[in-house]
Design goal:
The complex is a heterodimer.
Chain A: E1 13-15, E2 24-30, H1 35-43, E3 51-57, E4 64-68, E5 71-75, H2 77-80, E6 83-87
Antiparallel strand pairs in A: 1-6, 2-3, 2-6, 3-4, 4-5
Chain B: E1 2-7, H1 13-21, E2 38-41, E3 48-51, H2 63-74, E4 79-85, H3 89-99, E5 106-111, H4 113-118, H5 125-132, E6 135-138, H6 147-155, H7 170-185, H8 191-200, H9 211-224, H10 228-247, H11 250-261, H12 267-275, H13 281-313, E7 315-322, E8 325-333, H14 336-346, H15 351-369, H16 372-388, H17 390-404, H18 412-420, H19 422-428, H20 435-444, H21 454-464, H22 469-495, E9 504-505, H23 515-549, H24 568-580, H25 590-598, H26 605-618, H27 636-648, H28 653-663, H29 666-696
Parallel strand pairs in B: 1-3, 1-4, 4-5, 5-6
Antiparallel strand pairs in B: 2-3, 7-8
Helix pairs in contact in B: 3-10, 7-8, 7-9, 8-10, 13-15, 13-16, 14-15, 15-23, 15-26, 16-23, 18-19, 19-28, 20-22, 21-22, 21-27, 23-26, 24-25, 25-26, 27-29, 28-29
The chains are: A alpha+beta, B alpha/beta.
Amino acid sequence: MSSKHHHIAVGEIVPLSYLHRGERAKVVSLHNDNHALRRRLLDMGITKGVEIYIKKVAPLGDPIDVALRGYELCLRKADMAEIMVEKL
Amino acid sequence: MIVALVGNQNSGKTTLFNTLTGANQKVGNWPGVTIERKEGHVKGTDITIVDLPGIYSLSPYSSEEKISRNFALDANPDLIINIVDATSLERSLYLTTQLLETGRDVIIALNMYDLVKKRNIHIDKDKLEKMLNTTVVDISAKTGEGVDHLLEHIKTHDIKPNKHLNIYPKDVSEALKSVENDLKLADVDNTYFYAVKTFEGENDYRKHIKPESEKKIEEVVKKYDMDGEELIASLRYDFIDEVKKECFTDEEVKIRESQANKKATSWTDKLDKIFLNKWAAIPIFIVIMALVYILSVGLVGGLTVSFVDALFNGSETIELNFFGVVWEVPFEIAGIGPGLGGWLESIGASPWAVSLVADGIVAGVGAVCNFVPQLIILFLCLALLETTGYMSRISFFLDRIFHKFGLSGKSLVPFIVGVGCSVPGIMACRTVEDENERKASVILTPLMPCSAKLPIISAFAGFFFATYAWIISLSFYFIAIILILVFGIIFKKYIFKGSHTTFISELPEYKTPNASYVARDVWDRTMSFIKRAGTIILLCSVVVWFLGSFTWQFQYVDGELITINDSLLANVGMCFAWVFAPMLGGNLSWGAAVSAVTGLVAKEEVIGSMTTIAALAGGEADLFGPLDTVFNFFNPITAFAFMTFNLFSAPCFGALGAMKNELGSNKAMLKSMAFLTGFAWLVASLIGSVSWIITAAGGSI
């Protein structure tokens, strides 16, 4: 992903979009400004405390396929920026 | 009895629907195949099954998901079959917890049980039934296993009544109960469901809630340090975690989890390493799409067009075109047209009757049928792209590009489906979540050359570009893609401005296509093309023939005293032939004008009309041939210009109707139509002017 977010230390709290392939993180909070999107993310199981694994990255770097709760989901980076996570 | 099928996308609802009703609805391997509700009957019963678009929750996100929510909640089905994908139980059960909060009876069909067994996952069905407090039946919609059992439950209504599964801790339950009581007093239907919704913060029923209940909600929400919406969602998932723990044997859960975590273990992951590879993905995609084209139009098209044409119009030799290498093969056949014409003459039919059959019907319909063999291959390739799961990958990796141009990766599905036919393509735009991206996709889908436009491309390119025909034809698909991207960005900048866009999807697993489904799909699409040739194209050809065969004074055009230029058709066409003059290098051609307009009925009719007119004028269905006196002015440049206009101007009435539905108004549809036509006219005219300038300067083309 983007070169400006190289080293994310374990325990650091960052938007999910900062993580690289193969990394995992725990959801800390969801932003509130886009209600429909937030609702959808909640429905898809992105709730506080859930573990997310960055599984596949599209060849052009966006969108990204993440694994959570035993299934996979493709998200755009812009949407992932709304999810604050703690790196594991 | 009305039974609704509700479940996640790509969970096998339509497969089950087909098994239950014996119908043949289209199934595919991408999320969002079903975009409308469809009904079918179970034979020998009064049971009506309603297949609904896939949803993840009862808070719908895209327009097709609203159809499902509204049906499940408001249409009062007698029973809901909640189809649960046993291979991803967690996500599927989220919707289940919501369904169990409605007042409807729910039976759970645990689908893909064959896969579960194969992967050695154990699901304790009895425990699951107990925890969810409803009836659970394990089935495999694909193999039909367990479907009889499910049907038996439905017939005898042997289903536990829905007693509103309560999955919440005590404090939340109490707040909910208080809200529910307020709603009961206000005479609201489905009180428990709306109590939860109100707790989540939905405003529809807020006015009925008493201050005490409001206070209770506030207290609970504060205690958990989340808003109502997040709290309910995470409690649902907590409950599901509990179910998972209880109903999956521990060891299996561990294996499953470790598999999900390890890199590239499954087949799907291995294939994705290649198909989604950073460097290889796009070259592979281009090669696959080019192969589709080369195989259908290049190979099969080149080898069959002349043969089918000979069947209709008779011939002594046929041409086999193998990518520009042409063999003339002796093949003597009278052909249907001349054959029927000769027979009619022999029984003493009048010349106009002979002409109606040979020049009108057989020439017009035949011109369209020439393309059936290559369409079969095209439809086969499209069906393979759809059923293997590759199409979803294309959406996934092109999203980055499409998003920049105001579209969604999901727009790719309409564009690929649109290569077959614009109508299902336009309807497939419903899966695009963002309203602006969806509308842009609807307007731009008709730019993709559909199968009905293929006859136009092939007829012109085949004659005017001979050996390079396939390159010219292929170029139109690239031009279409470039136009789509250019318009996308214009729309984003000036029309559908400023919005936050989302792309949420899932990558389905790769699957070996089911041969009978693929065959069925190809058959359906091919038959619908042939059916059109036998109905609308036939009718249109007769009308064109009639107008081309008679004058205002109702005199028959005999080709000697009265020529086709005196016909009704020529007179009508001349009124607006000037519009087409610029793209035809300054030629005033009523024939081209009329043919382009008949393309509104169906695009292949452009060639149907031209062939009929050429036949009327020259006595043989020999478009651009030596006997053709109407269209002999075409040169490669004007041919290219005329193709450009017909391909990118307003689509046929069928597609315009679909656009109207998806854009929501006649006005929006007419605007899009005017926009597409205006643009196509401008570009075609610019190209056509080149020919004008060259000839004016004394050059020849």
